[in-house]
Amino acid sequence: MEMELKQKEKELASFIGRLLREHFGKGPGSVYASIADPYITIYFTQFLSPMENKLLANKQSTYVQKIRDLLMKPLVEEIKVYIELHTDIEIEDFYYDWDLETQSGMFAGFGSVRQNKDYIPFRNQEAVHDMIAKLTEEVQKLPGEIYSCVLNPRTLLVVRERIFIQLEKELIHMGFQENLRIAKRRLEKGMLLQNKEIFEKLIGTTIVNIYVDWDFKEDKSAILFILQPNEYRAAMG
Q1: What is the pLDDT of residues 91-130, one digit of tens each?
Q2: CA 15-20-25 angle, 5° bins
Q3: Pick from 67, 92, 98: which is nearest to 77 by CA?
Q4: Rounded to the nearest 10 degrees, how much is the dihedral formed by the CA atoms of 91, 77, 179, 38?
């Protein structure tokens, strides 16, 4: 069973690599896929095209993000279809984020049938939730709910629900989702990265990167902490 799962993860990683290469002109250097029903996460590195590199050199990172977001809209459906056909997990929520500085990114899909959220607790889990709640309250409001799980030694997923203030909801209603997403990436993600050392002390391992995205329709957000896998195993073991 585990061998079959590993094979599916390998095939999914290959599919994502090909898909990004076809639509962005350059594929990632490495792709790591994780299937932990009902969650699927994909982390990739060395992903930056020559054109994007030139735009970044001219301080046009916002433009690069807008282009990527536009290209992602049709790709999300392709990824959802592939996942459903090959894993029997019907993806309901889909999140993605980039780190242009480290040339990396993540995709995360949530299955439509929610499994038990009570995964094995990780070190200082409640303290991590408290820190997430504190930072969220500083930029918008206290989340209605926070839950989390370690999907594998490389990936810690944190989900926040009921986080948007009335102003954000009005901007969403008016169709400003794209501008709101870019602004929130700078603000919320910036705050998470500023507090990376605190999270590292709580979890007990090096955090390689932090990604965050929002589902404006469902009033939810997904945060992915990419961990140093060997360190995490040692901390938990």
Answers
A1: 999 999 999 889 999 999 999 766 545 566 788 999 999 9
A2: 135
A3: 92
A4: 10
* 177-184 vs 166-173: helix crossing angle, rounded to 10: 140
First to last CA, the chain: 24
Token pair recorded at residue 191: 């705050």
Please state the pTM of the whole predicted model: 0.90
HSE of 188 in the Cβ direction (CA atoms, 13 Å)? Answer: 27
| Local structure of 23: helix, strand or coil | helix
Q: Are 44 and 19 in contact (CB under 8 A)?
A: no
C-alpha–C-alpha distance, residues 103 and 179, integer Å: 22
pLDDT in tens, 21-75: 998 888 899 999 999 888 999 999 999 888 888 888 888 888 888 888 888 888 9
Taking the mean position of all CA atoms in its chain, how far away is CA 192?
13
